[in-house]
Amino acid sequence: MFSGLSAFPLTPMNESGIDEAAFVRLIERLADASVDSIGALGSTGSYAYLSRAERARVVKLAVEHAGNVPVIAGIGALRTSDVQALSDDAQKAGASAVLLAPMSYQQLSADEVFGLYETVTRSLSVPLCVYDNPGTTHFEFSSELYGRIAQLPNVRSIKIPGVPANPAAAKAHIESLRALIPSHVTLGVSGDASAAMGLNSGCEAWYSVIGGLFPKTALAITRAAQAGDMKAATRLSERLQPLWALFDQHGGSLRVVAAAAELQGVVEHPCLPLPLKALDGTGRQQLAVLLDELELA
Amino acid sequence: MFSGLSAFPLTPMNESGIDEAAFVRLIERLADASVDSIGALGSTGSYAYLSRAERARVVKLAVEHAGNVPVIAGIGALRTSDVQALSDDAQKAGASAVLLAPMSYQQLSADEVFGLYETVTRSLSVPLCVYDNPGTTHFEFSSELYGRIAQLPNVRSIKIPGVPANPAAAKAHIESLRALIPSHVTLGVSGDASAAMGLNSGCEAWYSVIGGLFPKTALAITRAAQAGDMKAATRLSERLQPLWALFDQHGGSLRVVAAAAELQGVVEHPCLPLPLKALDGTGRQQLAVLLDELELA
C-alpha cells in the first residue's frame, strides 16, 4: 500500500456541500486504472476545509468505490483531540491506513509534533503515513525527527516533499534518510515535478497529485521507475514540464488541478471550497491548451 | 471600541474542554481594569483550535462578564462558509464587533482574501476589524489591499503587525497606511514589543497579548502614549524588554503568556490545547524570575 503510485483525488465541492457524484467518478477512475493506493482527503482533497461529518462521508464513499485499491485517509487537524476523533472515524469508515500532517496555526516545535504522533499512533489499528508538507503546515521536519517518529508503532511510511533536482544530491538525500529510518517504513516522494527523480533515487512510493486526476499518465512514470528504466521515467516526467511550471506559477498544484478537472468535465465549476478559487484567466487558457497538447489520461 | 487598549485573553482549556471558571476570571480582571475593549478568541484565545460550539460559548461568557467593556470576537476559519456561521454565532452571543484573520492552509492570493472580506462584511450588523497576523496566517497584506478592504461596509479597524523599530520609519509607515485608509477606519498595532512605538507613531489602538493577562501594565503604556507622553510610553515598554526577548526566543507570545498565567495561578496547568504546550524547562524558570522582578499587574 505504501509503494508504487498513491493517487490523491480532489474532493469536488461547492457552497452546498460535497459533490458526491463527481467524487465517486474520480475514485472509480483510479480503481479502473489500478493505482496502488488512493490518498483520500490529502491536501488536494481539501481535508483541512471539511467538517468532521463531511470527512467521514468522503472516506466511506472512497472505500465503497475503490474496489480492491486500499484507501489512505487524511486525519490532520489543528487540535490533537480532533485528530484522534478523525482517526476513529476513518477506521470505522474502512480506511486501510491514515495520513497525518502536523497542521499548524501557531508554529509547532519538534517536541509538540513528536507528541502529536506519539498520542495518535498509540491507539491506531491501521498503519500511518507521516505527511511532511511544509508548504501548508509551515513545519520543517528534521531528518532526526523523521527517525524518532518512524520508531513509533504503526508508522509505515513517510511522505516527503520534493527531492533535490541534481541526481547525485537526490540519491544522497534519500540514502541519508534511509540510514535513520527502519526498513519497514517506506519513503514516498511528493511534489509531482520531482517524482521521477524521487523514484529513481530510491523512494518506494509517489504520493501524487496528478495521479488523482490522470492516473494512467502517473502510472507510466511510476512503472518505468519501478522497472529500473530511469531514463524512461525521466523522459515521461520532463514531457510534463509545462504543467510543473504552471504549478510553480500559481502557488502549487491545487488550483491548477482543480481547473484541469473542470476543463475536462470531470467535475463542475466551482469545485474548491471558498475562499479558494481554481485557476482562472490567462493561466486557465494556457492550461486548456496544455491539456490538449499533453493528452493526459 | 477600536482605540486605546484592546486586551486579548487566553481561552484556558485542557483535554476535557474549556476551563470556564478560569476564563471568566480573566474577563473579570479586564473589566475591573477598565480596558477599552476585549478581544475574545484572538490568536491568544486559541480560536483556531476550538469547535463552533466552544467558540459560541466563549463569546457568550465574555459578553456576560465584561460589564460595560465591548467584546470583539474572532471569527476566523479556513472556509468562508464557516466564517459566516461563526460571524452569525458571535453576533447572536452579543459581540460588539468581530475580528477576522485570513486563516490559510493553502496559501491564499490577494484576490481570494479580498473575496473573503467582501462576502463576510456584506451580511454583518456589527463592525469588523481586519486581523493581519502573517506569523500565523502566512498571508502578507499589501498596503493596497488594506486600502481596498477598508472601503468595504462595516470595516472599522485594521490590526497590523509590529511597526519598524526606528521611530522615523515607524511614523512614515503609519502615515503611508493612513494615506490609503479612510479616517473612519482605525489602525491598531500588535506585536507587544512594538506597541509603544506603534502608538507613538499614530496607531489609535493596541491589540495586546499582555493586556489580556496584565491589563494595568498595558494600560499604563497606552494611557501615556494617548496623553502624548511618548517618552513615558517608551520607558514603560523598554522596562519589559526581557519579556519581549522571551517571546522572540519561544516562537511568539502564546506559550510564554500561557506559562505566565499558570505561574501566577490565574489558570491551571495545562491551559493550551494539545499539541501546543506552554513554556517549560529553563525558559519557564527564567519567566518565573522575570514575573517577580517586573511586578506585572
From TrEMBL, chains A, B:
SMART domains, alphabetized: DHDPS (SM01130)
Entry's transmembrane regions: none
UniProtKB keywords: Lyase
CDD domains documented for this protein: DHDPS-like
Domain of life of the native organism: Bacteria
Sequence similarity: Belongs to the DapA family.
UniProt protein name: Dihydrodipicolinate synthase family protein
Species of provenance: Microbulbifer celer
